[in-house]
Design brief:
globular, mainly beta, six-stranded mixed sheet, 835 residues, 4 helices, Ubiquitin-like (UB roll), Immunoglobulin-like, 24-stranded antiparallel β-barrel, single chain
Length: 835
């Protein structure tokens, strides 16, 4: 046998692997010392910065001490009380003797010494430590919880995002029919410590000399972690959950649901039951398993189900240890304001209204509160106060077997000049349900009615301003009631889906009303997708527009991701429109995409045919776009560029369009490496790149692909995880080792091949390579010149040395130099000739 190996299920001790030297003489006739290969790399004692996973869930990156054990070749990670707490291990469940051993400040014990049936596995190459811990020894936390201790505030950095577009049209039938318009959207920010400063604005102009800059928002923001909230100072917007959203200048403190784990966001009922033994509990919804866990005998509670919208009641099955089964059902339907039992949400705003139609900036205060009382009831309330205005809201959401109901009423009082105070109410009702028998989805049905004396905050101040200016009681358009409905009905045997959406509204100071609805059907035949929609819109003037719309889509497959789509529409006035579009990518990495469209319109006696094309290039530093079209009467052209400039401790880096939360990657000497989490993103010439979007308060994995890297550079780690706060800019540094590399064909003085598997070390004793087949050595980490020693034993008779010097001129880009050498005792200054 060539090798014999003993492998253990858990890598807690070195696994022996024996090689037979007789098979590896390579014709040299010399004995080879392969003892260093008989065991894998042994973990030496010391402190390592490692990613720690507990039962496959990442817990964070820590500096952990590894201590040697006389019974084990590997040093083992050891833990003190503080580290066990950080890893969510319940120290109080350890036996008394173990807790006593942990009391001294210097105490540090291996996991196997702490918890029965626990084990660890250390991946040295990736610096990852995997711990397997029985569930009973862990603290009970919601699934996917990330300890706020690991939330990264990032580095001090600034950025300027831009979105530039230049658009030109020309009407061929008019002498002065040309129009050129420009748009420059800007979003900028500066992060200092916990604070995030932001400004958003837009500049527009045209060839007629008109230009305008509009400031959209300028604010400072930071987390208030103990309250899972965000504090905002400056120009911002209210959420619009209970009251109408308004723009304000001031301060706002509000709950941020993003800080909660996914298993606590939105609404899902708490499942409670009783098990007679160590039982499996399976939770299903419409036949799909949502959650499965093992519970101890007695009462159990599952309160971390993921929210699934309006999806239907939960079926719970309890399978006892002896195979007996019993089950029950939990009603599950939710309207948007439903919360889990015990979860609360609040907001408090103090500021001045920002509305360009108002002559002044009235001060107002707004407060809201929501609380999940039980699986069935969520209560909420709010108030709005300003000069001459006040309103209060009270409501609740109810989860029942008949569906989810929401109801609230708002009472408002407004002081109007010459009329005194007027009062009014606004009633809002909502309903959501999935009918299990027919799988009908009533996504949301709402009704809102407002009396004539009801005003919202902004409407009240606009009305007060109008009366002060004109001295009469006429008012602007105000809604009286509004009804919306959305239905979805899957058809049996994969016959597609029907859907209906409708809305209607009437107004207090305008006759007539608005009505619109759409009825549609969609399905797929093999790879061909198709849909048919009929819609009707009626405005307050009584005019009705009926439209029939048909669309087809066909993916063409292939590496270029091509697809073909077509659509046609016709309305009751005889107007028709048809178009065909081909889209795809023009590069292997999908960085260059394109679309070609032909369309035809007919209205009355006028006809217009148009051919248009558009392209988009996604580069590491920006996105470039262009479009061009030509029709019977008009032509159009546009160019655009989107991107950002980021200033950080390492310098200035150009970036793709940014989201609010992004990261900076640093990998010295690794220019050109791909960042696998983003399309067409590579490290620049200094080894930096900006990952344009991360999800705040969640684990984000950022990886570097070493493919295409110079052989002179080695990534010490190719993947990292980041858990940024909202708006944070973390710096992720990937350690690298660099040095020149070469393929060296070396032989002994008697022309014999060097022993296969012999070690190659530099002047410092660092191993830089191993002799491979054909007496060839691939060595990395070399200087421009130096000496290398080949060792295949413990004596001077089983070693030789040669000098090397890289040629002054480099070969083709990316090509590894090939050198040749005679291994003896040459002069250190003797250069190696090229092979």
């Amino acid at each position: 046998m060539l090798l014999h190996a003993s492998v253990q299920a858990e890598t807690t001790s070195a696994s022996a692997t024996q090689f037979e030297p007789a098979f590896l003489t390579n014709g040299s006739g010399q004995a080879i010392d392969l003892s260093r290969f008989n065991n894998r790399n042994v973990v030496a004692a010391g402190t390592y910065n490692v990613d720690v996973f507990v039962n496959q869930t990442w817990q964070g990156r820590f500096d952990l001490p590894f201590k040697a054990d006389a019974q084990d070749r590997d040093a083992q990670a050891c833990f003190d009380t503080a580290m066990l707490e950080r890893l969510a291990i319940d120290v109080q469940r350890l036996n008394r003797e173990i807790r006593d051993r942990l009391e001294p400040q210097s105490a540090c014990l291996a996991l196997a010494q702490l918890i029965d049936d626990a084990s660890s596995r250390f991946e040295f190459a990736s610096q990852r430590l995997f711990l397997s811990v029985p569930q009973a020894s862990l603290k009970r936390n919601a699934r996917d919880t990330v300890d706020p201790e690991h939330w990264d505030s990032g580095v001090t950095a600034g950025f300027l995002g831009y979105n530039f577009n230049l658009y030109g049209t020309r009407n061929h039938q008019q002498a002065q029919g040309s129009l050129t318009q420009g748009y420059l959207g800007l979003n900028s920010g500066l992060n200092v410590g916990q604070w995030r400063l932001r400004h958003d604005g837009a500049l527009t102009w045209n060839n007629q000399g008109q230009q305008h800059y509009q400031s959209l928002a300028s604010y400072a923001q930071r987390d208030i972690t103990p309250w899972t909230s965000q504090l905002t100072l400056g120009e911002a917007y209210t959420s619009g959950e209970l009251f109408d959203a308004v723009s304000f200048t001031g301060l706002r403190l509000a709950s941020d649901e993003r800080m909660l784990p996914n298993s606590l966001r939105g609404f899902a009922p708490v499942v409670r039951g009783i098990a007679s033994s160590n039982a499996r509990v399976i939770v299903r919804q419409r036949g799909v398993i949502l959650h499965e866990t093992t519970v101890a005998p007695g009462a159990f509670e599952i309160d971390d189900l993921y929210s699934t919208g309006y999806g239907g009641d939960l079926d719970v099955t309890v399978i006892e240890a002896d195979g007996r089964e019993h089950g029950f059902s939990v009603p599950y339907a939710a309207v948007p304001l439903s919360l889990r039992p015990g979860v609360s949400r609040y907001s408090a705003t103090l500021g001045t209204l920002r509305n360009p139609q108002l002559d002044s900036d009235p001060v107002f205060v707004e407060g809201t509160w929501q609380y999940g009382l039980s699986n069935m009831v969520t209560a909420y309330s709010g108030m709005n106060l300003a000069s001459g205005y006040g309103s209060g809201l009270l409501g609740g959401a109810l989860n029942t077997e008949l569906g989810a109901f929401g109801a609230d009423i708002t009472q408002a009082r407004t002081h109007l000049q010459g009329q005194g105070s007027v009062q009014g109410q606004s009633l809002r009702l909502s309903y959501a349900k999935t009918l299990a028998e027919t799988d009908t989805q009533i996504a949301l049905a709402t009704y809102r009615y407002s009396t004539s004396g009801f005003f919202g905050l902004e409407d009240a101040h606009l009305q007060r301003q109008y009366q002060r200016a004109h001295g009469d009681s006429r008012s602007f358009l105000r809604q009286r009631n509004r009804t919306t409905l959305a239905l979805g009905q899957p058809l049996a045997d994969d016959y597609g889906q029907l859907h209906l959406s409708a809305s209607a509204a009437t107004y207090w100071n305008r006759s007539g009303g608005d009505l619109s609805y759409t009825l549609g059907y969609s399905n797929r035949y093999k790879t061909l997708g198709y849909s048919l929609n009929a819609s009707r819109e009626r405005s307050q003037s009584g005019r009705s527009d009926n439209t029939l719309y048909l669309s087809l889509s066909l993916p063409l497959g292939g590496e270029r991701l091509q697809s073909l789509s077509a659509s046609a529409s016709r309305d009751n006035h005889g107007r028709t429109h048809g178009q065909t579009t081909l889209t795809g990518t023009a590069s292997a990495d999908h960085s260059l995409s394109y679309g070609i469209t032909t369309s035809h319109d007919r209205a009355d006696d006028q006809r217009n045919s148009t051919v248009s094309t558009n392209t988009l290039y996604r580069g590491s530093n920006a996105e470039l776009s262009a479009s061009l079209s030509r029709g019977s009467n008009t032509s159009q052209a546009s160019v655009g560029v989107r991107g950002a400039v980021v200033a950080h401790p390492g310098g200035v880096t150009l970036a793709q369009p940014l989201s609010d939360t992004f990261a900076i990657v640093k990998a010295e000497h690794a220019q050109g490496a791909h960042v696998s989490s983003s399309t067409a993103l590579k490290l620049d010439s200094r080894g930096y790149a900006v990952v344009p979007n991360l999800t705040p308060y969640r684990r984000n994995t950022v990886s570097l692909d070493p493919k295409g890297l110079s052989t002179d550079v080695e990534l010490q780690v190719s993947s990292q995880q980041a858990v940024p706060r909202a708006g944070a800019i973390p710096m992720l540094e990937f350690k690298t080792s660099s040095g020149r590399s070469a393929i060296i064909h070396a032989r002994q003085r008697n022309a014999a091949a060097l022993p296969f598997g012999a070690s190659v070390v530099d002047e410092t004793g660092k191993e830089v390579g191993v002799v491979g087949q054909g007496s060839q050595i691939f060595a990395r980490g070399l200087q421009a010149r130096g000496n290398l020693q080949v060792r295949w034993g413990e004596t001077s008779a089983t070693a030789c040395m040669f000098a090397y010097t890289f040629p002054a001129t480099k070969g083709a880009s990316g090509e590894t130099p090939r050198l040749s050498a005679t291994c003896g005792t040459p002069s250190p200054d003797q250069p190696l000739p090229e092979a």
